[in-house]
């Protein structure tokens, strides 16, 4: 009996050890937590999907870029066709939160966190929510755009202020959800868009407003800006890698190559090459946090660094700024290849953490002015 009990205990130990080892392997492959030693380049590459592998093989030849962006425009048009249907004078927008028949007249448009595409299209609107930290603050003030309030902690929109503006159309970022959509729809016809998909949102809004040709022309201008930046960066960076770090109040994030809508324009449009650690994060893009212990593994030739959360979180921003200042004093930071080579670009989170054609163009301009000349 004693021998049998010992045998059971040994079996249980082996099973527990096997489970722990299996968990470690899964963590190593999926990037579920900080690792002292990262995966090999071969192991990372083997785990990438075909789209990412194809992106890594692209060139910066102008003719190849033109073909690529032509396909991109066609894909954007196809996506918009699924959202906006036009039948003569009847325009219907089928969006994430419902279906909206566009009003025949829309001269008093209120915008809820979709200011970027409206300004990019040079379309008029009467009100939005913004503050002095917004990268569009000057444009909004120059247009005399009225300001209604949104509580960013609770994501609560001041519906009474919007109702007092007597809008005839409301354009809303769809992340505010069904309750906000229904409340706004009681005030005026409301259409919603996923502004994280900048190109689809811009052309979708243009088509809904009856000016699709303006949207297409603006997208072509956007692609021309991207082409200019891409060719210049391709020449000057010469295939060297660029990582994008975000310092927050409780963690450090290294963003993946393509599977994050904050920085994927760097891969999609500019063909910037990533370090292996960013590709490793690509295998599990929902967790981009890295530990300080792993920081020395970040062998990117160039680094883009930002701190905080964007324009609407002043308290957390201050904490993140201080953390970045402390990090810069650390030997782990000072010994990074990009830091040693003085190849670090510190950027404003109020711009780089934002979605929109204008936001991405300004980010491209920063990259061009820093590493493209």
What report would you give on this structure?
The protein is of the alpha/beta class. Mean pLDDT is 89; it is low at 1-36. The strands form five sheets. It has a five-stranded mixed β-sheet. Strands 1-2-3 form a three-stranded antiparallel β-sheet. Strand 7 and strand 8 form a beta hairpin. Helix 4 runs antiparallel to helix 10 and helix 10 (212-237) packs parallel to helix 17. The protein is built from 17 helices and 15 strands.
Q: How would you characterize the largest beta sheet?
A: 5 strands, mixed
Count of helical segments?
Answer: 17
**What is the gyration radius calculated from CA atoms?**
24 Å
What share of the residues does DSSP label as strand, in percent?
5-15%
Major beta sheet, strand line-up: 13-12-11-14-15
DSSP strand tally:
15
Portion of residues within helices = 40-55%
What can be said about this structure in brief?
This protein has 373 residues and is of the alpha/beta class. It is 49% helix and 15% strand. α9 (198-208) packs antiparallel against α10 and α10 (212-237) runs parallel beside α17.
List keywords for this structure.
disordered N terminus; alpha/beta; globular; 17 helices
List the helices and strands and how they pair.
Layout: H1 2-30, H2 41-47, H3 50-56, H4 62-83, E1 84-87, E2 90-95, E3 98-101, E4 109-112, H5 115-120, E5 127-128, H6 137-142, E6 146-147, E7 150-151, E8 156-157, H7 159-164, E9 169-173, H8 177-185, E10 190-193, H9 198-208, H10 212-237, E11 242-247, E12 252-254, H11 265-268, H12 276-282, E13 289-290, E14 302-307, H13 314-327, H14 331-334, H15 337-340, E15 344-346, H16 349-352, H17 357-372
Parallel strand pairs: 4-9, 5-6, 9-10, 11-14, 14-15
Antiparallel strand pairs: 1-2, 2-3, 7-8, 11-12, 12-13
Helix pairs in contact: 4-9, 4-10, 9-10, 10-17
